[in-house]
Amino acid sequence: MKILVLNAGSSSQKSCLYELKDVQSDRPLQPLWEAKIDWTHQQNVSELKVQTAAGSQLEEELASESRQAAIYRMLETLWKGKTQTINNLNEIDIVGHRVVHGGQEYQQSTLISPDVKEAIARLAVFAPVHNPVNLEGIEAIEKILPNVRQIAVFDTAFHAGLAPATFVYPGPYEWLENGIRRYGFHGISHQYCARRAAEILGRDLADLRLISCHLGNGCSLAAIGGGVSVDTTMGFTPLEGLMMGSRSGSIDPGIIIHLLKRSDLTAEKLDNMLNRNSGLKGISGVSADMRQIVEAISQGNERAQLALDIYIHRLRAGIGAMLASLGGLDALIFTAGVGENSPIVRAAACEAFRFMGLKLDGDHNLQSPIDADIATADSAVKVLVIHTQEDWEIARECSKF
Hints:
By secondary structure, the chain is an alpha/beta fold. Helix content is 36%, strand content 20%. The strands form 2 sheets. Strands 5-4-3-2-1-6-8-7 form an 8-stranded mixed beta sheet, sandwiched between helices. The chain starts with a strand and ends with a helix. 42% of the residues are buried.
């Protein structure tokens, strides 16, 4: 079975082709073909990078007439040119799409139909940056492969089992009736990391209490008990929760009321402020990138140090909240760009939980571990660094259809 995966973001489009000979395979496979389009560096230019398992590579810059044209060119490299991996598109059996928001209707991966497309478009009001581009990828495939099955793998689905006390906000009950509730995000990543953690530990996932820390430009925690999400930090939107690269995370809503009363702020300006100019970027004035924050700290930048201090404080507080939801902890997981690559963040986060017997192996933490336990042998809690593989998790979901 050949599975094409499209993982669309607001400024990039990633795609992979997997071949599953055993549809029950749990271990990540190397893609036969990988491609990425980046729209961030030059206006009206798409930067395309492609590589194959056979070692072929391609880099191109495309004049962006449209995102769909760029996506078509990306897919064309599958069956044409030096990165050709298949003879024709009919070899593709199924296409999987990461879709950020599935709302209350879609609580598991779903075969895409006109009704599902309509729902994805309607739910764009909750995820305006992501759902429209997710839909764009679906429609691009419809034009190229009109008869292939397409699957929507929802980022919110992993959190669908949250208890009402967890997902209902303490505002007017009408909020809930209008779909305003906690949904949670990064579900595909949290789901993959939980399953991978069980493999690394040689334990049954159903017996584990895990806290998964997805720390990238966007950040969220998930408390996972018995293999399901029982609590998470992101909520109605991906803005809630931890301090992030350029997002504020949770703040006193009275701040918004105060600003609206005393300034000319519009909804658009607020959105830009909280989603794009807050977090590490807003406090440091340097960058949303943790690597640049750490570099600025080494040069004596006090605002960068403050940004890191706030980030760690809120990360520790979030882990504490997830710990309370689980009633104990078997393993703490770090994943995504910061989680996988910042020993400073991992060490600082773990330091606060020494009281419960968590002991970090400092040397191992510094050695760029991947899919490894970095706790000491006598630690009461395992500390895992896991390379998240959302595209593979999407492929696994597709293999069920």
